[in-house]
Structure formats: structure tokens, C-alpha cells
Amino acid sequence: MSQEKEKLASYLNEIIEGDCIQLMKELPENSIHLIFADPPYNLQLNGELYRPNQTKVDAVNDDWDKFSSFGAYDEFTYNWLKECKRVLKKNGTIWVIGSYHNIFRVGKIIQDLGFWILNDVVWIKTNPMPNFKGTRFNNAHETLIWASENKKSKYTFHYKSMKAYNDDKQMRSDWSIPICNGRERAKLNGKKAHSTQKPEALLKRVILSSSNPDDIVLDPFMGTGTTAVIAKNLRRNYIGFEKFKNYVKIAKERISNVRQLDIDMLSYLIERKEPKVPFGNLIEQNLIRAGEYLYSKNERYKAKVLANATLQMEDNIASIHKLSAKLLDKESNNGWKFWYVERANGLKSIDILRKEYREKYIHAF
Q1: CB 14 within 8 A of CB 239
Q2: pLDDT of 108-145, one tens digit each?
Q3: Count of other CB atoms within 10 angstroms of residue 362
Q4: What residues does 174 pair with on adjacent strands?
Q5: What is the rounded (10 degree) CA torsion for 200, 203, 208, 210?
Q6: According to DSSP H, which parts of the chain are helical?
């Protein structure tokens, strides 16, 4: 095993205490499949906040969220994102979450570094904290930027799985999820341990949709461990960096209680792409015979099948795709969905014959 692989292995499934920028420099480049980052938001809060009944609001006023200026915050953001760019695999992706205070500055730096933005996902909080002063709209969402390492990255996205997850409707970029509360909220001395702990449901969507079992998920700002909790449950490897000892301790305790799902519960069979079957294969196996005619569904068009797997319609000779495109006056068309062949029970789609071919000659072995 190379020194770089040994170094990476020593970090796997560990929460390391320390500054993420320095720690990421120790990771090999092009080594991480997925990054989820929940950085400081630089909320710029002025003074304490009270409810109408004069009870104090437990807001985000931690020292780690305070920066002297926008310039200082931008420099910090550039430095940690630069290291993320270095360690992310060429086909990997990164998710960064933020609020209106910081997400636009983060987005610019992401683009400046050469990441390619795929989506901005809006986390709609179904139970947001009210705007107690009544001076602005109730801030009921946060934004996640999802980006690939570069424009040409062949990134992981389980589209069909997420559609099934969403009751067979295409999953949209607005996610309605409650904020973290109740038993899920990590506590310290009876109070919430971390002011910005994210809900497990949010991380589950992120990790399920854009990674695979055994992938490596990095969280540079691990906090109380939610990313690692979900990664472990879904049989991903995790690496977490966190500056504060109390958070590291809580994260490790949470992770120790996680039960991993069985691997057979984590397959993505619905995403499987069927092997290609040329039209000529159907002729070879006599599922369609040379000299037969193919028809459009409405029987308006009729073409003869030639032995070389082309179709002839008067003076036009072309493939099933090109001839159907010409008839529809289109640049291209899927001939498998256009043509039908006559059988005992009426017209039968050649696409069904293609499926029969796969079952008999490919999947059977």
C-alpha cells in the first residue's frame, strides 16, 4: 500500500480534532467521493434577541461564527474550499449549506475555484424559528449548493431512486424538512449542544442521492456528527474534522450507537442501465424476420425489414431510428418506441421484443 493510501486509511471512519484547512492538506488529492460542508455562516448578529414575553432566544452567537469583515470571511471560505477542490475526486461532488448571510459569497468562490454548480437546493423548514421583531419576513429556508469537481465530471446521481423516494414524482430542488429537534438534538448539560445541528433527514437525502456504499464522505465542519451518523448507517466511509473537543466527544458517542443497514438494503438496482441491443440481434434470433413489415402505432407508416437490419420505405432506406426521425421531421428519434410488428394478437412494440431478447440471451446467463 502506498504512503498516500495508508495516510487516507488512517483517517477513515474517524473524527479528527483540529482545523479543517490544515487537516485537509494531509489528505491525498483526488481521494474523496463526496463532501458535505456546513461552514460558519457569519451571521453578523447584533446584540441579544428576546421573544415578546422577554425570554432570551438561544441564537447562534458562538465565537466560531464571528469574522472581523466580509474580506476575512471570504479568505477563510476560499482557503477551505480550495482544499476541498484538491482532495475531491474528478467525478466527485460537494454540497455546501448556508443562509442568506453567506451563501452568495460562498457560491461565487465555488465558481471561481472551477467547481461546476449542478443545483441549488432549498431546504424549507417546516417549523422555523419566528421573526420575533416583526421587521422582516420569517426566514424559513436555507440553501444548499451542489457542485461537481468540474464541468465534465461524470458525477453520481441516483435519479430513479430519488424519484421513487418521492412517490414516483421527480424529486425537486425544494425539500420540506423540519429543523433538528426532540430526541435527535444532541444535548450538553440539558441544553442543545450545537446551535446549528442539521436534521438527519437532510443528510440522508444528500448521501443517498449522490454517493454509493463504500464511498468516502468528508465533512470539514463535522460539529456533533450528523454527517458521520448517516454515512455509517448507509455504509459509507466518513472522515470528519472538528475544532472543538466537546463536539468531537458528542459526535463519537452518537456514531457509536449507529446501526449499519445490511448491504442488500442499499443496492441501487433501479438505476441499472440495460445492456444495449442492436436491432440486428433481433433478426439474428428470428424475433423479427427479414421481409417482415414494421408499422407505426397508428399504422400510417409501413416499412420492410431488410436482412442488414435497415428498413425500406419506397426509396428511403435507413435504420429504425433515422427512418422514424425522417417520417416525424425530427433530427433524431428513438425507433424502438416508434415501430411495431404484426403478431397474432395485433401490433407488438419492437421494444417489447428487445426486452424479450435481453431476458433470454443476456439476463439468463
Answers
A1: yes
A2: 999 999 999 999 999 999 988 887 777 889 889 999 99
A3: 12
A4: 122
A5: 180
A6: 3-11, 20-24, 70-87, 103-112, 159-165, 200-210, 226-233, 245-256, 279-284, 320-327, 335-338, 350-361
